[in-house]
Amino acid sequence: GPKDIDYWLKESPLATHTESIAEQLQVEGDVGIELDLGIPFSSEEDVTYRVMTSLNSTDVTHKESGLLFKNVNGVLEVSSDTGVTANNLKTEFLGEKVGLKIETRSEIDSNTEAHLSKTQTVLSLDGGVKVENLLEYFDVNSIMGLSGHFNYQAELSVPNDDGTYPNLSIKSDLKGVTAEWPAPLNKKPIDSRSLDLDVLIKPDQMYLALNFELEKSLNLESELLFVGNKLTFGEVLIGDAISKAPDITGLNIFAKINEVQLDPWLNFIQEISDNAAAESNLIKKIELDIGKLSAYGQVFQGTHAILTKPSEFWQLELAGQSIQ
Fold this sequence. Notes:
The chain is mainly beta. It is built from five helices and 17 strands. It is elongated.
């Protein structure tokens, strides 16, 4: 059972090669072990080994991130030649059945003087997820207007060396996701939009970097800090916007866009405030540079708008060449 695999990976003579990765993963459930050992005649040569582990509805948890791979089925190989390898595992992740591949990768670390090689174990996933299940992992109940299901490719890179942190990357075209938000944040399920998500996983905190295609030639970039799985600070940059004096106690949105209708945005912000007090209090500042603003039955050119929430209510400041 799991105790056997713990012994081979953490305590046996093989542990010098496998202990670091084994310490980061928790294995629960039914496993079967087969072992091939090559004992050298010369003390200068290393022991060669190959441990074949059959996983039968086994649960594997990455401790640092809390990511849980349920009911893993297939064969995992740990060898002196190739490290950790598994090509055709089946598992359940974030509520859905997905394919899982595991491999050990080495690359030269150019940051070290001796250019030592960095080794990491990479778990590659190919599957789909409901928006609500992904948000649940980040401890977010729901985001108003955001729903659907999308396919993705993900990689969880688990370092074999101390001093580096695990990293989760997710790529998707987001087909199947609906965003009932004001333009340019709106999206229909048939729309294809490129998403690149990168999460650096440190003890008790996560740093999330996101790049998202809103529409042709308009991108959204975001950096978010989660402490204890709660979003504590973040910036969202839309278009060529630059961050200016962000409020470090919450989420800041900066946008530079050609055309905006103000009414849908005001209604959207009000609905967020009404529906989710906790989430709405997280948004501290929205600053917009707008080429053409439609508001109050008029069109304003070259407008700068700042929305802040110093107390219970949002405040709007407008400035620009056609605003008196």
